[in-house]
Design goal:
256 residues; alpha+beta; 8-stranded antiparallel β-sheet; 3-stranded antiparallel β-sheet; 5 helices; 28% strand; flat
């Protein structure tokens, strides 16, 4: 009798364990998912970000469940995979993945940047300075890129950050060093071009004020400066992004 009771209890425990193991798989229904910062995950066949005018922002799952975006860590919908880069509940608090591993992922988001005004910087929001035309005289929408390694936190995409995580790959580091040299050359060319333009402008003004009756004459130095800067723009336009190449090589060699 006692052996029968033990056997019955053992079977019940086995059934309970089996149910606990299969329940998460049964809950994995839906094409998309949203993961909260506490690790809790929800699945849905329809996942939208809503920003109504008179109500708070929220994610809407299958037209029925609402989730506050400030609680969300990552999510995936029909637009792609997104990860959090900032606090808050705005759409810009998340960046879209454009390069998927297996170890290095690349993300981007678009931000409105105000010239001489109040806008976004990688370190937060702040006033950029006085403008004679008022607050935020000009603005533009710019892409800001990030990356992560092994599904870790996101960092701003630049030479210093990448060189730390790609240091164990010689081919990637070679591309990063090419990027660094190219930046130094671009800085030098920009200084030369701007210097020629400034010198040409001063020379043109002085010649015009000489009163020789010839009117305003453009100094050849201005043409030279404009030519240098224009040539630099064209060259940079057709250069490949060495930072992205370094990440791609890192992932490719890992696959090999």
């Amino acid at each position: 009798m006692r052996r029968s009771i033990y056997l019955l209890l053992f079977c019940l425990m086995g059934a309970t364990t089996a149910f606990a193991q299969t329940e998460p798989e049964q809950n994995r229904t839906g094409r998309y998912f949203i993961q909260l910062q506490n690790g809790e995950t929800y699945y849905a066949n329809k996942l939208q970000y809503k920003s109504p005018i008179f109500k708070s922002n929220h994610f809407l799952l299958d037209d029925s469940i609402k989730i506050n975006p400030s609680f969300v860590n990552v999510y995936e919908n029909d637009e792609g995979f997104f990860a959090r880069i900032d606090r808050g509940s705005s759409y810009d608090a998340f960046a879209k993945r454009v390069l998927d591993g297996p170890r290095i992922d690349k993300y981007y988001t678009s931000r409105t940047v105000y010239d001489n005004g109040y806008g976004y910087s990688p370190y937060g929001y702040g006033y950029g300075g006085y403008s004679p035309f008022g607050f935020g005289a000009g603005s533009s929408r710019r892409r800001i890129y990030f990356f992560s390694k092994d599904n870790g936190p996101l960092y701003e995409l630049n030479y210093n950050n990448l060189s730390e995580v790609l240091s164990d790959n010689a081919a990637s580091m070679a591309l990063l060093n090419k990027h660094k040299r190219s930046r130094l050359v671009n800085t030098g060319v920009s200084i030369v071009g701007a210097g020629l333009l400034a010198a040409g402008a001063i020379s043109s003004i002085n010649t015009s004020q000489g009163g020789d009756g010839g009117g305003f004459r453009v100094s050849p130095a201005m043409y030279a400066g404009a030519g240098v800067l224009g040539l630099q723009f064209v060259v940079n336009l057709f250069q490949k992004d060495k930072l992205t190449q370094a990440m791609e090589v890192y992932n490719y060699q890992l696959k090999q």
